[in-house]
Amino acid sequence: MTRTRAYRDGVLRKEDFPVPAVSDFLAEPGTTVWVDLCEPSEADLAELADELGLHRLAVEDAVQEHQRPKLDRYDGHAFLTAYAVRLDSGGERPATYELAVFITPRALVTVRKDDGFDIEAVTRRWDQATDLAGTGVPFLLHGLLDYVVDGHFAAVQQLDDEVEELEDLVFDDRPDTAELQRRSFRLRKNLTALRRVAGPVPDVVSSLMRPDLRLADETTRPYFEDVHDHARQAAEHVEALRERLTTVRETQLNLQSDRLNLIMKKVTGWAAVIAVPTAVTGFYGQNVPYPGNGTTAGFWVSTAVMLVLSIGLYTLFKKKDWL
């Protein structure tokens, strides 16, 4: 699966042409080429690598999976790795789609490790924002990174909503402890996965704005700075959510401890109340004569003593807030 586009002087001239024609377009002054490959092998990249002078190590990284987000610079081009993120409602883990990008002075090559990365959404952004098209590769790279970072931000916002729901559940009158634990651990896993792919992006975008790469000039720098600001906000928001989730977990444990102490306080108080009639009946059950022994009056006296002492203890404990 291959997609190609050729821009000349900021205008889309042709698309979906064969890869061998890339060198013909690059021979024309003022032309910028975009090539997209989905699940290619090293052999598939070999011809294009020869035409564009791509480094062998960068080609190997483009084919191998699970690369960390990074920016490597080689002689004549740069190599970037990033991840798009999609977090479905109720999903157990965020779906991540790896993308490798070769950045040359007049060509941008994207290598998708699978078809989950929505490249059509990127092309729509390019078609809707043509004010930067005249800058060539920076225009293409900005639209691509803007789509990736927006996906990170959307995932963070969705996880933020889930953390708020979890915070509300903690203070329910009768919280479901098992459900709280399950959701909190699932959120922590999701935040960890998102942190792994979104955390390095601000440094990557910052490196792209270095003068030696010649991507961020007076025209494009504000746009790259906007992407960098959004990427930094997303990374910081992830860290803030991790701290909030830790606070939620600590609050949950503290509330459980408070509830347990309250229950123990009530049980102990009632045990003390019940101990009084137990002591009275035990005393009257002794095998020695005592006032009222063997008479109806003795029974009523012992009953009255139990009631008075029990009510007195209950009133005392209630006054001290022990019950």
From TrEMBL:
Source species: Amycolatopsis eburnea
Domain of life: Bacteria
Coiled-coil region(s): none
Membrane topology: Multi-pass membrane protein
InterPro entries, per database record: CorA_cytoplasmic_dom, CorA_TM1_TM2, MgTranspt_CorA/ZnTranspt_ZntB
Signal peptide: none
Protein name: Magnesium transporter
GO cellular component: plasma membrane
